[in-house]
Design a protein that fits this description.
The chain has helices spanning 2-32, 50-58, 60-65, 78-90, 105-111, 132-137, 160-165, 176-186, 207-217, 234-250, 260-268, 281-288, 326-336, 339-349, 360-364, 366-371, 375-384, 408-423, 429-446, and strands at residues 40-47, 69-76, 98-101, 139-140, 143-144, 147-152, 154-159, 274-278, 295-299, 313-318. By secondary structure, the protein is of the alpha+beta class. The protein folds into two domains: 40-152 and 313-371, Periplasmic binding protein-like II (D-Maltodextrin-Binding Protein, domain 2, 3-Layer(aba) Sandwich); 154-311 and 393-446, Periplasmic binding protein-like II (D-Maltodextrin-Binding Protein, domain 2, 3-Layer(aba) Sandwich). The strands form three sheets. Strands 2-1-3-10-6 form a five-stranded mixed β-sheet. Strands 8-7-9 form a three-stranded antiparallel β-sheet. The chain has a two-stranded antiparallel sheet with strand order 4-5. Strand 4 and strand 5 form a beta hairpin. Helix 18 runs antiparallel to helix 19. The longest helix has 31 residues, at 2-32. It is globular, with a radius of gyration of 27 Å.
Length: 451
């Protein structure tokens, strides 16, 4: 009996030992190949505008075609996105696999080695189809560091019905003097109708994107050739006085809190007679607004000089070097900026809603031309915006509505806060520009630009 028990126990111990070995082997295998049977999750930092919301809406199609990739969306207000993306990239924290950045960040971050080059794209991506201005703006030393999701310049939107009723005619190329005359005549605050809506929210990419174009066309610049700040100059005083008076007299209440999204809502709901902002809004106004059949368009206004009166920007998808999911991230970025994706939006939302400004093939499509009467106008504005020659006088920097140096992100926002304070009635133009000039001068001096 004891002999039989010893045999049974011996068999049990052997079985347990084998089971332990098998478990060890399986554990080791899992450690060596963690991705087997697991989806790669890529985290996308992006902004809360309508085109991106549409991308998120359609993204299950990407996950279905790529079951080994899961998307995690972090959707942020524009100013917050810039702060979070910059912090992530400069601290190497690796929180994001895809970041939505623009023509300001891409060349600088690429130069510093913070982004993965957008090389090795699939053959059907057709990089040559991407508008050259967009590619150039997202490259450093001939290497592309981000793929453009959409590209924009700026233009003037106006209500054709209100203009007709008031006996006014919008020229193809309005001046700022004409814009003021139109706004004065079309403002009726008792009816909640405002002659103009403009960006007032503080931020280097919010109010300063627009204000910089006003300064450019009034003959001003941020710095002279010796990198001395020129903000406290007659040209800036004229431009900012014009802008702030226009918003105070003919703009909506609380204008200093309004950015792109807030003004898009106001224009779409019929509150604004005019709006000067990004060309990307055209599709949204023509396709999804209460006044879709009443919208007219013209070039961004000019004053003293035509240079720099309309901006150039591209919201684009880039991959930080710190991402641990490089291949999956690149696959998503290529899909979201592809011809295939544009086709999906056209079918889902209508051709007026496809991301504009990126591909020549979009502008060649009969469906797009028919749905988007402003398409040729927008493409021309994008192609003619020149970041290398945007001011009346020679300057040492590139950029239309921003300065292409790392320090601009910080002092540009400080200047934006000063000017938002003018619009809100908290400070005078003189005080705001004096403080802004000192901040900009101090920043470039500390960075060693001034010799």
């Amino acid at each position: 009996m004891k002999r039989i028990q010893r045999i049974v126990w011996g068999q049990a111990r052997a079985k347990l030992a084998l089971t332990g070995v098998a478990a060890s082997v399986l554990a080791a295998s899992a450690a060596l190949v963690p991705s087997i049977g697991q989806a790669a999750t890529i985290t996308i930092a992006t902004l809360n505008n309508p085109d991106i919301i549409e991308l998120k809406k359609l993204s299950p199609a990407f996950e279905k075609a790529n079951p080994d990739i899961k998307l995690n969306w972090v959707i942020l207000e524009e100013n917050v996105l810039r702060q979070r993306a910059t912090t992530d990239i400069t601290t190497n924290s690796g929180q994001f696999d895809v970041v939505t950045i623009g023509t300001y960040e891409a060349p600088q971050w690429g130069k510093r080695g913070w982004l993965s080059p957008m090389t090795g794209l699939p053959a059907n991506y057709d990089l040559d189809d991407v508008v050259k201005t967009a590619r150039d703006g997202l490259s450093y030393n001939g290497t592309l560091y981000a793929l453009p999701f959409y590209v924009e310049s700026s233009m003037t939107y106006y209500r054709k019905d209100l203009f007709q009723a008031a006996g006014l005619k919008m020229p193809d190329q309005p001046t700022y003097d004409q814009i003021k005359q139109f706004a004065d005549k079309l403002t009726d605050k008792s009816k909640g109708q405002y002659g103009i809506c403009l960006r007032g929210k503080a931020g280097w990419g919010e109010n300063m994107a627009y204000v910089s174009t006003v300064v450019n066309t009034y003959g001003g610049e941020w710095f002279n050739e010796k990198w001395q700040a020129q903000i406290d100059s007659p040209e800036w005083h004229k431009a900012v006085t014009f802008y702030s008076d226009l918003l105070k007299n003919d703009g909506p209440p609380g204008a200093s809190s309004n950015g792109f999204n807030e003004n898009l809502t106001l224009m779409s709901s019929g509150k604004c007679a005019m709006w000067i902002d990004a060309t990307v809004a055209a599709g949204m106004l023509y396709n999804k607004s209460q006044v879709a059949d009443k919208i007219g368009f013209a070039a961004a206004p000019v004053a003293v000089a035509p240079k720099g009166s309309h901006w150039l920007w591209s919201w684009s998808l880039a991959i930080p070097k710190t991402s641990k999911q490089q291949d999956a991230a690149k696959k998503f970025a290529a899909w979201a900026t592809s011809k295939e994706y544009i086709e999906m939006v056209g079918k889902d939302e209508g051709w007026a809603s496809v991301p504009p400004g990126t591909r020549k093939s979009t502008y060649a499509r009969p469906e797009y031309k028919q749905a988007v009467p402003f398409s040729d106008f927008v493409l021309q504005a994008i192609e003619f915006a020149n970041p290398n020659d945007a001011t009346l006088h020679k300057v040492p920097y590139t950029g239309v509505q921003f300065i292409g140096i790392p320090e601009f992100q910080s002092f540009g926002t400080v200047v934006g806060q000063s000017i938002a304070g003018v619009v809100a009635g908290q400070t005078s133009v003189d005080n705001a520009l004096k403080a802004a000039n000192a901040a900009a001068d101090r920043a470039v001096k500390q960075a060693g630009y001034q010799k």
